[in-house]
Specification:
The complex is a heterodimer of chains A (278) and B (232).
Chain A lengths: L25 H4 L1 E12 L2 E12 L3 E5 L6 H8 L9 E9 L2 E2 L7 H7 E4 L10 H11 L6 H11 L3 H4 L12 H13 L5 E5 L7 H14 L4 E5 L3 H7 L2 E6 L3 E7 H6 L4 H7 L5
Parallel strand pairs in A: 3-8, 3-9, 6-7, 7-8
Antiparallel strand pairs in A: 1-2, 1-4, 4-5, 9-10
Helix pairs in contact in A: 4-5, 4-7, 5-7, 7-8
Chain B lengths: L3 H34 L2 H32 L3 H30 L12 H21 L2 H40 L6 H40 L7
Helix pairs in contact in B: 1-2, 1-3, 1-4, 2-3, 3-6, 4-5, 4-6, 5-6
Classes of the chains: A alpha/beta (278), B mainly alpha (232).
């Protein structure tokens, strides 16, 4: 989609991925991200319990479950956002591009360029719309045409038509829905492979939320989207695969979204999604 | 349990569909008696009462629509609502067929004796009754068993149709021979053909009642096991 100056490796040292690994590269199997026997602890508290799942590339995968079930923790493990929490300890693998992102030679900053993130509350920088989108490009030393990339990103985030005549205005002057799309433009500007979204519409009104939902559908043509949502109807509407986490950080069921919402295997999942247990 | 009101509405929907089934089956039984006896009052009771079945249908259709729109059911709840939505259509059609059947006993001259009308009617009605019972009890095995009965009913209806045609044609031939003519009387032949088509329509309606029983069983099986093997 764009030309970046950095190579695509996540590795900052000369060490490369283990060439003896007999698993096929994830890219060739159509898997964007895979968790293998993942455990996450906050101090003595276990937040994720032995989760193994493969997330398909260029699809929307929804993570649902009650509060405290570990779905956001899982999401934040994928691009090592949990590194910033001192008491957080991660065991097991999160594979991206055929490599465990928790290996010592993986640069978290490089990783986050490949796996962008959008948060619950729109959080544009107190900068112009242009600078918000260009921020990541500047960090990575992008040598292409920044304005061109800003335009591409704003178009991909379905915001260009609304802001193309005010690129120098502050991002904070936009409406909540526009701010969230600006954050999505900022996340995709460095041309990531995966976009993580943590309840991206929960702070938005229904019209703004529906625009984001349409956008997510479009984004999945280029990117792998992994979204945490409390809104089960949203998960049903926009995702291809749904993972249901229940209490204790356990992944109880993971399947095609249609299967989960029409005929889940697990009674606990049925009880949760039908509202009999919350 | 969260969403208690919603859960109560789902249970109410199920019992209302069963109640509609009971009403339809009651009318169907009356229609069979009207056809057997030629009792015009019974026939009128069925025909005049069809609006009540239609009204029940519309009420339940609205309830299903409202549950889908406002409660957004999923999984087993979704299957209950969508299956109910389809089942009430089948029940409403059985009600329509009951009005046809009731009329066969009136001015149309009754059901031809070559048709074992009561036996066929009971077999078809039992399929609907058993399907409604399977829906009420979430009995998957009963659904499959009802489906298995359909071939037998179809075969019996086919034999009944043949028997009617054979009987009426033979009777007409005998009358023609008795008259000593080579060609049948055109007016009498027209009457004979009317009688044949009348009997065949009655048989077809009974067969269709059985088909609706199978449809209800198929939707019920989908509701219970998410299994569409009987639907198509």
């Amino acid at each position: 989609m764009s030309n970046t100056t950095s190579d695509d490796s996540l590795i900052t040292t000369e060490v490369q991925a283990d060439s003896n690994d007999d698993r096929a590269p994830l890219g060739e199997t159509g898997t964007a991200v895979a968790a293998r026997n993942l455990d996450v602890y906050y101090g003595d508290e276990q937040a994720i319990d032995d989760v193994t799942m493969e997330i398909p590339e260029k699809r929307v995968t929804a993570l649902i479950g009650p509060s405290g079930c570990g779905k956001s923790t899982f999401l934040r493990c994928i691009n090592r956002m949990n590194d910033m929490i001192e008491i957080c300890r991660v065991e097991g693998d999160v594979e991206f591009g055929g490599k465990n992102v928790y290996e010592d030679d993986v640069d978290p900053v490089a990783l986050r360029r490949k796996i962008g993130m959008v948060f619950q509350k729109p959080n544009p920088f107190p900068k112009s719309i242009r600078d918000n989108v260009a921020y990541g490009l500047k960090i990575q030393g992008y040598e292409g045409d920044v304005d061109e990339r800003v335009e591409e990103s704003l178009k991909a985030a379905a915001l260009w038509d609304e802001v193309n005549d005010q690129l120098d205005s502050s991002g904070l002057e936009l409406s909540g829905g526009q701010q969230q799309r600006l954050c999505i433009a900022r996340a995709i500007a460095p041309d990531p492979e995966v976009v993580l979204m943590d309840e991206p519409t929960s702070a938005l009104d229904p019209v703004a939320a529906s625009k984001i939902e349409d956008l997510i559908d479009d984004l999945a043509e280029e990117y792998t989207v992994i979204i945490v949502t409390h809104n089960m109807q949203q998960a049903a509407r926009i995702s291809d695969r749904t993972a249901v986490f229940l209490t204790g950080g356990r992944l109880v069921e993971y399947d095609d979204t249609t299967k989960i919402f029409e005929d889940p295997e697990e009674q606990r999942v049925e009880d949760y999604i039908t509202g009999k247990f919350g | 349990m969260p969403r208690e009101n919603y859960q109560e509405r789902l249970e109410q929907l199920r019992s209302d569909v069963v109640a509609m089934g009971d009403l339809v089956l009651d009318r169907y039984e009356t229609a069979l008696r009207a056809a057997e006896t030629g009792d015009d009052d019974l026939a009128a009771e069925v025909i005049d009462g069809d609006h009540e079945i239609n009204a029940r249908y519309l009420e339940l259709e609205e309830e299903c629509t409202e549950l889908l729109a406002l409660q957004q059911p999923v999984a087993g709840d979704l299957r209950l609502v969508t299956a109910s939505f389809k089942i009430i259509t089948d029940l409403e059609r059985v009600g329509d067929l009951a009005t046809n059947i009731a009329e066969y006993g009136g001015d149309d001259g009754g059901i031809h004796p070559a048709v074992d009308f009561r036996e066929l009617g009971d077999a078809a009605g039992e399929m609907v009754a058993d399907a409604v019972a399977a829906y009420e009890a979430s009995d998957a095995e009963a659904c499959r068993e009802i489906d298995a009965r359909d071939d037998d009913l179809d075969e019996r209806c086919r034999r009944a149709s043949e028997a009617v045609v054979r009987s009426l044609l033979e009777a007409d031939r005998a009358r023609t021979e008795a008259d000593g003519t080579e060609e049948p009387d055109p007016d009498r032949l027209a009457d004979t053909l009317d009688e044949i088509s009348h009997a065949l329509l009655a048989i077809r309606d009974l067969e269709r009642v059985g088909d609706h029983g199978v449809n209800i069983a198929a939707r019920t099986l989908y509701m219970i096991e998410s299994d569409d093997e009987l639907i198509y």
